[in-house]
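haha ok so turns out i had the wrong file open the whole time. this is the CORRECT one, sorry everyone. sequence first:
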Amino acid sequence: MSEGNPSQGAEEVAGPDLATRLSSMSPERLAEEVISVWEEVLRVEGELATARQRGRALEMELEVRDGDGSARARAAELEEALRVADSRIAQMEVLLENERVRRVDVEEGGGQSRFTELQEENARLLGSEEEHVMLILDMEVQLERLVAELESLKHPSSQ
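then structure:
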């Protein structure tokens, strides 16, 4: 039970009339009124608790009734998950078999052709590297020339 003043809610509604009425009451009568209101609050709280219990009981009963449908739905979900898992297993088995075949090919002579491919790729990359080095060297010469030009333009303007 909260420690709020039961007359606060009523005072907001009734305003100064309630305050005037309560102040004119004798202390004994005021105590009787407070006890009466307190008993009424306890009774209403009891009714509320009973109503909540009934509500929970009805919810549980409803869940039991709906349980059959939800069990069927859950079974359908699990069956679908199983189908998806079976499909994924089949895909993985195909990938595994493909990898086994590829490895057998490499071991039986496919390795030589792959080695030749890698040598050709290496030669191509080395040629590309030489071209890039030449380009970089050419750019460095161009940059040096531009820096020299800028320096020559800078000195005559400062004199």
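The chain has one domain: 6-123.
again sry for the mixup
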